Request: fold
Amino acid sequence: MADKLFFFVDPKNIVDSNFTLDKTESKHLLKVLRVKVGSEIWLTDGCGKSYRAIFKKSRNDIVSGKILDVLPQYGENALKISCAIGILKKNKMDLVVEKNTELGTTRIIPLILDRGIKLNVNVERLQKIAKAAIKQCGRSVIPEIFNPIKLADLLKTYENNNLIVCHDSGKPIDSQLLKSAKNNKEILLLIGPEGDFSNSEIMLLKKHDAKFINLGKRRLRSETAVVVALSLLNNILDN
Reply:
């Protein structure tokens, strides 16, 4: 069993230093994980705070207890990373959302692109996946899941110029590339669909001064590129 067991707590269910879990989380604690009264547990509200707590009692299968410590931004990066990715087929978007969440992304933006096959995603389903993933990895913020948007429309609304695009034409990522990003405290990572970005999309990104990075000699699937790119970004930013 993991050392830290995280459960989602609604901020409304925290009064002073006392918490109450909802039916779903209480059932998971009592029936699935079989946590004993008096055990230390961890809570996350998905809004920016995590808590170290004690499971005090269960009444009518509803768990309550005492908060010991409040930990703002627990498990969060100092630099915000948003990930915009071409919509993928089948359950690949589920994987993308799960791994984005585990790797600290704050916003996940499905892109409608020229070579993309799908135009829609089930936002509600993806939100549930993200919520489950923050408990697994121990984060305090649930990433925001956007409705699908066209690349041109996204770039019109994105005021920050810290655009990093995964593409074969780019250079290996290094700390110099992220120097300006640290000043603005935000990065928008862009990853193409299974057919990659079109030439017109590449030109559009260049007009917005996007920086292009190469993830290595091998050609990666989009869902793999997410994990590789975010891992590299996190490694540089952490150091």
